[in-house]
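May I ask you to review the protein record following this short note?
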Amino acid sequence: MYRTLLYSTALLAFIGCAHAQILVNGQVFTNGLAIVDAPAPESPMHAGSVTQVAIDISGDGKLDQSASIPGSDKPTRFDSLEIYLVSYQTKLNLTVSSGPGLLAQEQGSTVKHLSYNVSTCIPPGSYNLTFYEASHINNQPFFSITPLPVVVMNDHPTATCTNGTNPLQDFPQLSTPPPQSPWLNGSSIATQAFPTATGSTSAATASTAPFALILLTLVSSLFPFV
C-alpha cells in the first residue's frame, strides 16, 4: 500500500480527492481504468463467508489485454491495482489485494476474480471496498482512489483483527484521477450516485442513505483511443 501511495506523490498534473463513482447498468466505473462487476454497491459482506470480487480490466473491450500486464509499455495501461477494506466507523484498514498479483493472474481473461474471506474478527458496520489505481492514459500518469460502499454483517465478532491490517489513512486522501473514466467519454447515459463510508461523520449513514438517480451528459472524449 505504501508503494502505491508514494506513487501518487509523483503525479503532479493536478491534485484532487477521491471522486464519486459511476454506476452504469450494474457496473461500477472507477475513477481510473477498472470496471467493477462485483460486488454491487452496498452489498452485505457476511463474516465467516467469502465475497466474490470481479473486475473488468478491458474497458468493456476497448483496452488490449497486454495493457493490464504489470510493466506494459502501452500508452494507456494499468500500472498497479490494489484493494483495501476500509472503515472510518470501525477504524479498520484491511488488505484485500496488494502488489501485482491481481493484474498478473488469469492471463488471457478480461475479468480478474478474487475470493475474499471476510474474517470473523471484522466488526459490523459500513465499509468501503477501496480501489487504488495507478495508470497511464495516453502516456499521462494518473493515481485514482475509488471507494465502493459495502456493509459487513457480523453478529459475533471475535478478537481484534491482526492479519492484513494497515494504518488508517487521513481522509480525504490525495489523488490525481482523470476528469472521468475514459470509457464513458462521449456518451449520454443514466447513472446512479451512491453514498460512501468515507469520513468520520458520513460512515454511519452510508448503508442506509437512498440512491439518487441523476442524468449525466458526458462530454466528448478528452483521451481518444485508436
In short: The two ends are 33 Å apart (CA to CA). Residues 2-19, 188-193, 198-226 have pLDDT under 50 and may be disordered. Residues 2-9 form the longest helix (8 residues). DSSP finds two helices and twelve strands in the chain.
